[in-house]
Amino acid sequence: MTSLLERRDARRAPFDGGHGGGVFLSIQYLRGLASLMVLLYHAGYDLGLITEGSRPHWLASGVDIFFVVSGFVMVTATADRPVTARRFLASRIARVVPIYWLATLAMIAILALRGQMLPTLGEVAFSFLFIFYFNARVQDTSPILGPGWTLNYEIYFYLVFAALLRVPVLGRIAIMALLFVAITALRPVVPADSAFLVRVTSPIPLEFVAGMVIGYGRGRLMQAPAALGAALIGIAFAALSLLDPPLPRVAFFAPPAVLIVLGGVMLERHIGRRHIGLLGRLGDVSYSLYLTHPLLLAMLTPITVAAAWVWPLGIAIVLGSVALGFAAYNWVEVPTTRAARRLLGGVRRD
To answer: C or N: which end of the chain has fewer Cβ atoms within 10 Å?
Structure first.
């Protein structure tokens, strides 16, 4: 029997797969932590406090934690009941698309208000349809709303996951691992000027597969000693913050991200029903925070202030972004997700 608090959390975190009638609190906390890491990275980057070559650039690995978490959640959310591909995709569309489209439109409005170059209709179509393309305005493979590149990978993963839903979980994991490895192996031969092919042949989707493996083994992992879970998380963050090997992004960020999620799941039963206040709430609003903080930064960029005001401004931006994320979650994400579910036939939370 679940408590009122657990039932409330299950409603407020529609992206979560549950256990014991509630949610995986460890995953909620990791989602909140990952969203905060990405926010700190972007704010620090725009303020000149972080560069690609500086030590804190590891904060960008919050994205990789999200990818591993997503693989975990998709396995746990579909493990205990039959889910058709249509229902699964409808649930994902209702969850991901509405607020992303609205945030993208808000970004276009900000660009217009600032008198900056507006995206073409083609860019809008590519962004809305989660298709990788080269954005000439920013000289990068990026949609109109910068963090949207990660959602392109999410949708890619969802499509493959949905196509294999009838396959038992272990077979699904094996097929997806082999498929993504085979596609990644093609990367050396794809045209370097094809943004779509270069992105699709990235090894990033293997982070989702790693999360699926953790999700499949969650029962045994949750029986592990708390000290082991804490040690894995500590080792992972120590490696991220202290090491800076000359490796590609995925090779450096993926192993620690996997260890962090692995350690979090090991700690799940030791966490029990204890809530870590703001971190748990950040987990609830993490998607809204992830999508809306670039809007605040876009209104301020380029940011040029006296050196003495950089840190106070940075703190104000972080606090303002968190407040915006909470507002967007309560007033935009929740109502639009519910409306989309009704529109798509009343799909339940998956």
So the answer is: N
